[in-house]
Design goal:
By secondary structure, this protein is mainly beta. Helix content is 0%, strand content 31%. The chain has strands at 22-23, 30-36, 54-55, 61-65, 75-79, 85-90, 109-110, 116-120, 130-134, 140-145, 163-164, 170-174, 184-188, 194-199, 218-219, 225-229, 248-252, 258-263, 282-283, 289-293, 303-307, 313-318, 336-337, 343-347, 364-368, 374-379, 397-398, 404-408, 418-423. The chain is globular and about 50 Å long.
Length: 424
């Protein structure tokens, strides 16, 4: 049965502070809120954007919300440079079974014709998620409903978004299912032809080749795919009560041959190299891979790592190296390169402010130079009622002028999360 996430409790409407400049204490960067979600009755404009953003050719931003929308199961939205929001599609508009999909956790990708592609974690004919296409006019087509095969050998629960190759074919991952139950990497043609390229846990317990890929994929110049798995690797049982290990970085050829480039946590129990990579990877010009581990590291609060083509891993930065985790902790999202060669990203927690008793802070935007020196560009929630946003789970995107854009799951004028812009 389809799981329904109820909307967060809403307090009385707060005074809208979002469009004025806000200053983060650590980096003296200027943050402006382009849009605060749940501004409409019953959050018809969406709430809780877990995913990042993508630019179209006109400079508009597109993204997804996990909840809200016209039917309460999330939406796809477009945001103009001036902050005007348009809901392009609200999920679960075709009845209580939500055959069009429900609760999109991942972001979107454009094709050359301006169509958007993405996934939803739930919904579809079998209730286990869909891959969809959305035209510029807002017409949605379900390309694949997961768990269509016996025992869900086609995978289910797509947590991440999709990537396009030069031919227009789509590739993605599912967290669960597949021939061996550890999730899959799949290929999907624009007309809907679906194929599983690889099923994890092919060698059985302890899934030495990885298990549960929750991140998206990235191509190299030869067409090979690279990604991470949340569990598996089999180095240690520390990261999972079922003993699957702490995750891997893998390479997959176009024909579906998998190679594990790195297995996390060879040094139990401290795992200084990181554990639990939720996010995907990015290449530098020399072919090195960069990513984040949500946990582990020198302080067990996550790390940014570098991996050479030969599989040598180096931790560039361990979070919570400062008192009170003012430098951030728990990086669920990946990193992006700026034109200056530095890495930029977010942490879901940490920073200079405290949101509640459970967390050390509301999250940060950080910059990391090649030598591993970290600078916090912005700490969320310096304002009353956190009108600037809280808990950035997603990564960042640059515009042509070097401004950074992202989302937060919480905070904002109506406590439904925000789209923010950060200027140098």
């Amino acid at each position: 049965m389809l799981r329904k996430i109820s909307l967060m409790k809403r307090s009385a409407v707060l005074v809208l502070l979002g469009f004025g400049p806000l200053l983060g204490a650590a980096g003296a960067q200027t943050e402006s809120v382009l849009y605060s979600f749940c501004a409409q009755s019953h959050c018809a404009d969406g709430v809780s954007p877990y995913a990042g953003l993508v630019f179209d050719q006109k400079g508009n931003l597109s993204g997804t919300t996990y909840d809200g929308g016209a039917y309460g199961y999330g939406d796809v939205f477009e945001l103009s440079p001036e902050g005007k929001e348009t809901v392009l599609y609200s999920f679960c508009g075709l009845g209580h079974t939500c055959i069009d999909g429900a609760e999109p956790r991942a972001g979107l990708v454009f094709d050359q014709k301006g169509n958007l592609y993405g996934t939803t974690e739930y919904g579809g004919v079998h209730g286990q998620g869909v891959a969809f296409k959305l035209t510029p006019e807002g017409k949605e087509t379900v390309l694949h409903s997961f768990c269509a095969h016996t025992d869900c050998t086609d995978g289910y629960g797509p947590y991440a978004g999709l990537v396009l190759d030069q031919k227009g074919d789509l590739y993605g991952t599912t967290q669960y299912g597949g021939a061996h139950g550890g999730g899959v990497v799949f290929k999907l043609r624009p007309e809907g032809k679906y194929a599983v390229l690889y099923s994890f846990c092919a060698h059985g317990y302890p899934c030495t080749e990885g298990a549960q890929p929750v991140a998206g994929l990235v191509f190299d110049q030869k067409g090979n795919l690279y990604g991470t798995t949340l569990l598996g690797g089999g180095v240690t049982a520390y990261c999972s009560d079922v003993g699957y290990g702490c995750g891997v970085v893998f390479k997959l050829t176009p024909k579906g041959k998998e190679t594990v480039l790195y297995r996390f946590c060879p040094q139990y129990p401290d795992c200084p190299d990181g554990t639990s990579p939720y996010a995907g990877l990015v290449f530098d010009k020399k072919g090195n891979l960069y990513g984040t581990a949500a946990h582990g590291g020198a302080n067990e609060d996550g790390a940014v790592f570098k991996l050479t083509p030969k599989g040598k891993e180096t931790v560039l930065y361990s979070f919570c190296s400062q008192t009170g985790c003012t430098d951030g902790n728990v990086p669920y999202a990946g990193v992006v390169f700026g034109q200056d060669g530095n890495l930029y990203g977010t942490t879901a927690e940490g920073g200079t402010t405290t949101c509640n008793e459970q967390y050390s802070g509301c999250g940060v935007v950080f910059e990391l130079n090649p030598e591993g020196k970290e600078t916090v560009l912005y700490s969320f929630c310096p304002q009353t009622d956190c009108s600037d946003g809280t808990y950035p789970y997603a990564g960042l995107v640059f515009d042509q002028k070097g401004n950074l854009y992202g989302t937060t799951v919480g905070g904002g004028a109506y406590e439904g999360g925000v789209v923010f812009k950060l200027t140098p």
